[in-house]
């Protein structure tokens, strides 16, 4: 057992350190920007996937179902309440010290005085989120993608959001990856074989100002621009066309235009959507792995970080005591209020009921319930 750090909370109060103004916190302004970008991406991606590609009915049904479940799960987390804790006082059994509860070094229940919590009682797995300015039960982490905390009420819809987002993006990318690969190949060929780019970019020293990345990325961007200028001289990558007509001076004229303009000619916008979709898919898959692992272990992201910090201080007196102080009553029936403060190291599996039981308690009893956001856990 290690000695606790010199500074520990006293009298059941959470210490209130000097805090950064909320609007200056990165998660706050990222939480305002990222959802807007996701909305733009969703609208643009929808128009590309369902409005610019001839698709079978089954493909459209799968995309719409995945889109609905993704959107439902996302907004179930996004609109989760952020108000201050309603319950200020601990339960009677905690006040009388007849049960095990999180406490300070004096054996008093912990209260939070940060932001607008106003001395609200903090249970064992409750943490104060500085980004949301309130306490959260079973706090795991704050996610800027959904501009909210992931915890007791949001863990399952957040998991279903990740699962269905990965399914939606994977299905949507099926027709796009081959097209974008062919588009990039044509642009690269144009980039290397065009005398205009040789004169304007490759032969200039300025093209090396930002190093090799700037040199080749800049050439690729100019290649896209040049390709679009000369697109009328090149065959369409997607040859489907539609005929349009207009009437002038009593004479009707007909002309052909690409049926899918964003795909017939290489566009940076389409490339950006595809790369962003791949990026989001990889993030979703990584987060799914983390949530499945942590849930089955009965732990949380913040608990893992506390454990890493504790182990990194092994052999030295800790600057920050990551242990949990618990009040343990001696005899709850006969000697109310009699007990001792026990320090538990953060790597102790206090909440591990076994992988299967841990998972069922968070995600649901039946396998199909794991993927339905509105079925209660």
Automatic annotation (TrEMBL):
Subcellular location, record wording: Endomembrane system
Membrane-topology annotation of the record: Multi-pass membrane protein
Keywords: Acyltransferase, Lipoprotein, Membrane, Palmitate, Transferase, Transmembrane, Transmembrane helix
Transmembrane segments: 28-47, 53-79, 158-177, 268-292
GO term, biological process aspect, one: protein targeting to membrane
Domain of life: Eukaryota
EC number: 2.3.1.225
A GO CC term attached to the entry: endoplasmic reticulum
Catalytic activity: L-cysteinyl-[protein] + hexadecanoyl-CoA = S-hexadecanoyl-L-cysteinyl-[protein] + CoA
GO molecular function: protein-cysteine S-palmitoyltransferase activity
Domain Palmitoyltransferase DHHC: 120-176
Pfam families for this protein: DHHC (PF01529)
Main location: membrane
Family to which the UniProt record says this protein belongs: Belongs to the DHHC palmitoyltransferase family.
Free-text comment on this protein's domains from its UniProt entry: The DHHC domain is required for palmitoyltransferase activity.
Protein name as annotated: Palmitoyltransferase
Origin species: Rhodotorula toruloides (strain NP11) (Yeast)
């Amino acid at each position: 057992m290690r000695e606790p750090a010199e500074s520990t909370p006293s009298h059941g109060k959470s210490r209130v350190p000097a805090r950064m103004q909320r609007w200056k916190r990165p998660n706050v302004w990222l939480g305002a920007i990222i959802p807007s970008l996701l909305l733009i991406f969703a609208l643009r991606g929808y128009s590309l996937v369902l409005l610019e590609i001839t698709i079978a009915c089954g493909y459209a049904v799968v995309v719409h179902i995945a889109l609905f479940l993704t959107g439902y799960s996302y907004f179930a987390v996004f609109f989760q309440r952020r108000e201050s804790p309603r319950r200020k006082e601990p339960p009677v059994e905690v006040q009388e010290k007849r049960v095990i509860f999180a406490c300070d070094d004096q054996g008093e229940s912990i209260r939070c005085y940060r932001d607008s919590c106003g001395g609200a009682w903090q249970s064992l797995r409750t943490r104060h989120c500085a980004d949301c300015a309130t306490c959260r039960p079973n706090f795991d982490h704050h996610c800027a993608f959904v501009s909210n905390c992931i915890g007791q009420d949001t863990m399952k819809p957040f998991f279903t959001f990740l699962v269905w987002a990965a399914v939606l993006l994977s299905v949507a990318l099926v027709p796009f990856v081959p097209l974008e690969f062919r588009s990039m190949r044509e642009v690269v060929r144009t980039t290397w074989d065009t005398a205009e780019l040789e004169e304007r970019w490759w032969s200039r020293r300025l093209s090396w100002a930002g190093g090799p990345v700037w040199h080749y990325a800049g050439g690729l961007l100019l290649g896209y621009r040049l390709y679009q200028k000369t697109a009328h001289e090149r065959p369409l990558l997607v040859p489907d066309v539609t005929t349009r007509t207009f009437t002038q001076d009593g004479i009707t004229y007909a002309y052909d235009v690409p049926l899918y303009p964003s795909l017939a000619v290489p566009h940076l916008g389409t490339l950006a959507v595809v790369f962003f979709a791949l990026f989001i898919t990889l993030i979703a898959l990584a987060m799914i792995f983390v949530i499945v692992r942590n849930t089955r272990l009965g732990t949380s992201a913040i608990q893992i970080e506390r454990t890493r910090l504790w182990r990194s201080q092994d052999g030295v007196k800790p600057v920050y005591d990551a242990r949990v102080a618990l009040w343990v009553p001696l005899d709850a029936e006969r000697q109310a209020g009699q007990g001792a403060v026990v320090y538990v190291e953060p790597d102790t599996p206090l909440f591990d009921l076994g992988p299967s039981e841990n998972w069922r308690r968070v995600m649901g009893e039946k396998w199909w319930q794991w993927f339905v956001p509105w079925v209660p856990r």
